[in-house]
Amino acid sequence: MVEIGAIETRGLRVRRGRAEVLRGLTVSVPRGQVVGLLGPSGSGKTTLMRCVVGVQRVADGTVTVLGQPAGSPRLRRRVGYVTQASSVYDDLTVRENLRYFARVLDAPASDVDRVIDETGLGGQAGQLTGSLSGGQRNRVSLAAALLGAPELLVLDEPTVGLDPVLRSELWGLFHRLADAGTSLFVSSHVMDEAARCDRLLLLRDGEVIADDTPLGLLQATGANDAEAAFLAVIRAREAPERR
Ligand SMILES: Nc1ncnc2c1ncn2[C@@H]1O[C@H](COP(=O)(O)OP(=O)(O)OP(=O)(O)O)[C@@H](O)[C@H]1O
User: Which terms in the Gene Ontology molecular function aspect does this entry carry (predicted)?
Assistant: First the structure.
């Protein structure tokens, strides 16, 4: 049997306003890995994630998630999505928020303690969410997305605003989840997070300019880090046009 990837897109085109922001993307995200979606601000990362979770109007092409068309009702509990904005209630405590979302998602009540533990929020569980720092609040949204143990997690810049220790802990969590079989699709505009991914998709101006492992990308470009590799890929693509 052919293994169905976590995410498959074919010729995906999206227009937002007058601009074409995804320009015929064909990408494949394997299961059970942490796949990084890296690219500068405005390159289309959030738009691609919106396509994956089925909330973006698509002009052309297909998006298949866990073998189903993106947005299909059967994917609702199988896919967790964390946007850049907080998706939890400020006037509830961390634990109250998670209990509420566990009920909405029909997740086991025991998941609440599990996700509090996984996201390191034990010390804040009884605190009103509105009184937390921005980074802590992001982790409450992440904890809510972990309820019910979805097979695919789509995380839009989950480490923004976190200190290096928390950032490192969160990447550790992502890999533990992947080791247990979860697929993670994680965006970042911070190139130094590239090395933490199993696989990378580099996006620029709505096009995938590289799809490789971090090591493969460094070897292919001869660069020492992801930022230099990104620039090398861009230069190589633009070189023929200069002639
Ligand atoms: N609601 C909208 N209407 C029109 N254009 C939009 C809208 N939202 C985003 N865009 C445009 O689509 C392009 C891609 O935006 P997108 O948010 O997907 O980029 P991104 O890579 O996620 O950026 P960031 O890292 O800043 O979040 C940008 O040029 C942006 O200006």
Answer: ATP binding
**Cα Rg of the chain (Å, integer):** 18
Q: Is the CB of 44 under 6 A from ligand 1?
A: yes
CB of 31 closer than 6 A to ligand 1?
A: no
Map out the domains of the chain with their CATH numbers. 7-78+151-242 (3.40.50.300), 89-149 (no CATH)
The pLDDT of residue 240 is above 80: no
Please tell me the distance between residue 57's alpha carbon and the centre of ligand 1 in angstroms. 14
Which residue, by CA, sits nearest to atom 24 of ligand 1? 41
- CB proximity list for 112: less than 8 A, separation 6 or greater: 95, 98, 99, 102, 147
CA count, 13 A, side-chain hemisphere, 28:
6
% the chain with pLDDT above 90 = 75
Each residue's pLDDT tens digit, 29-61: 999 999 999 998 899 999 999 999 999 999 999
The overall pTM is greater than 0.90: yes
pLDDT tens-place string over residues 108-140: 999 999 999 999 899 999 999 999 988 889 899
The encoded tokens of residue 91 equal: 């006037």
- 79-108 burial, b at 16+ Cβ within 10 Å, e below that, comes to bbbbbeebbbeeebbbbbbbbebbeebebe
Q: Is-contact 203 195, C-beta < 8 A? A: no
| Residue type, position 87, single letter | S
CA distances from 85 to 47, 49, 134, 135, 242 (A): 15, 14, 10, 11, 41
